[in-house]
Amino acid sequence: MGNEVLEMLNEVLELLNDAGCTKILCCVDDEGVPHPAAKDSLQSDGENILYLEFIESSKTNRYMTRSLWFDKKVSVLLLTPDKKSFLISARPVRAVVSGKYFQKFYRQAAEKHGLDLSTVWILNPESITEQTLQKRVEEEAAARPYFVHLDRLRKEA
Predict the structure, then answer these.
(1) Which of 71, 58, 86, 72 is nearest to 28 (CA)?
(2) pTM for this predicted structure
(3) Taking every pair of C-alpha atoms in the chain, what is the biggest distance, in angstroms?
């Protein structure tokens, strides 16, 4: 990984722990239909993305299991309070349901939410793209300078 990519990865992983960010996890159902869901329990341990699932029988938990079993990617959309947007492509690599690691998050969930914890999902981020509109406009203008709407090319009389 280049330094610029690594810096963005570190920035985004830190942002995942910011309570002011909106976090959306998107996996796909059995028919390939996207299943986006706002998930405040998305966070980072500094290397990976962690997703804490509270409901064993939830659709998201079922689709995450399917993604793990069939080696399918999921995506995380992160929107910061200052309106920056990041799209993270990640691969579920482990579902933790017991043991010391699980207990750590189980206690935190009970204290913070008063809820039981079903699963600690560990996701390995594979790519990050900043989706902020101004950033994307600049990138597209640089990559495709001739993609201009015709009315912008019209000469003034």
Answers:
(1) 72
(2) 0.84
(3) 75
